[in-house]
Amino acid sequence: MRPPPLLTVPEFTQRSREFLSNVNGFLQSKLVLDDIAEAVLPRKWMERHPSFPEVKKDDNEKSSSSSSSSSMMPMLVQRNTKGERVKNLDELLEGARLVQPKFESIMTKIVRDSGLEPSMTVVGPLDRHATPQKVLTLARLKGIARIVEKVTNELEGDFSRIVDVVRCSVVVVTEEQLESVAQALKKPIVFQLLPVAAEEKREFEVVRLKNRFKTPLFNGYRDALYNIVVEEDCGTDGRRVKHVCEVQLHLADIVAHKEDTHVFYEYFRTYFKGSRAEESRMQALQRLGECKEGSNKNNSVEHLIGSILQGSDVGELENLGYLVEDLMGDVKIALLVRRRILELDPSSLMSQLQYGVALQNAGHLTEAERILRDVHSNVRHGFNEICWNSITSLTMLLQDQGKPDEAEPLMREALDGQRHELVARLLIDARVPG
Asked: Can you say whether residue 197 is alpha, beta or left, with left for phi > 0 and alpha for psi between -120 and 50 degrees?
């Protein structure tokens, strides 16, 4: 029996063509970085340094200010001169200014102990024409505007969670130098002694390592980010302030390509962010990158998309759906994807909801309204993600159709559901064990 003919894939939009161009650039850039790492890191010494600490959240944990703040390890929060978590910008900057000179002394000593000259500029052996990089760059304190922006947009208003106000970068040339700096960061540095019969003080402690030489970013970029706690006197009464600082450890040949890769990093960051299926999503990009738009051969993008739509691999279809919906912005192909997923799992309310939204985005409003109303009627007994999304999608659809009187009750239902959910969470949080 002959296989059924592949579905005809609609002509690509301008946004889709831009996306495919970025796929090729991203994959070529990643290949360059992988080749560089293979050439200059043959012994893979940095892979012996595991990242730490590992903070895990429950799969069902909701994202909220309290849960996100509490997930920070005790040593990864900024404290004021009283030892309390900083509450505002002034307390944050006070601690940063107090420890900055000590931090700079520590990092200068670490670099020199590694056999390097801090003020020297270097280039990697693979590209002698690259812009020279300074071995040790002691940055100014992070700007106030950037601090406020980051705290507001990324840290839910919590100034104690920003840990890169005091920072520096170290750029080395060889794998041996990379390992030397990593080892030096493990050793205690003592600048002064306590009174007689007391023990020596350790002036800093490494409290976090993100070792991206061991686990590279999705775009192939490799570096190591250390957070170290530096202590410094803050008065004549014996009080000492502890402040978390950041150390970026780079390899010259890799950092030389950072600017070239960053544009693709920003473009695809949301595609990989928080993904537990990073490998499968990378494979999806690689398959697209191996194809040629408009080709008459069986390796064309159109043929690949058509074969996925004819298949029964829901995971592969979901990856394609994310690509065409969020990155390519192609509502016609997205509709084909969501219809195929629904064909494979017709009882899934989530598949029905996503198909309804795809219909709505493609302009098939009458059919979309029917689907979304069916989903809404089946989930009204419980306020959950599907219920919320069905209400919001149906509300927008009705407003687009000029039916505000039908949309208003749905908006009230959504508000009531949110209130009930908030009350339920408060009761759970207030419940006393036993």
From this structure: left
pLDDT band at 380 (very low <50, low <70, confident <90, very high): low
| 91: in domain | yes
Q: What is the mean pLDDT of the chain?
A: 83
Q: What sections of 185-330 are H helices per DSSP?
A: 252-255, 258-272, 278-289, 301-310, 314-322
What is the CATH classification number for the domain harbouring 180?
Answer: 3.30.460.10
Q: Indicate whether this model's pTM tops 0.85.
A: no
Q: Are 288 and 77 in contact (CB under 8 A)?
A: no
- Domain match, 205 and 303 both: no
User: Which range marks the domain in which residue 356 is found?
Assistant: 279-430
Whether residue 192 is found in the same domain as residue 309 = no
Contact 301, 63 (CB under 8 A): no
| Whole-Å CA distances, 353 to 291, 323, 364, 372, 382 | 31, 18, 14, 6, 16
What residues pair up with 169 in beta bridges, in sequence order? 137, 248
Q: Which of 86-90, 187-191, 209-213 is least confident?
A: 187-191
CB atoms within 10 A of CB 348: 15
**What are phi and psi for residue 236, nearest 5 degrees?**
-90, 0
Total domain count for the chain?
2
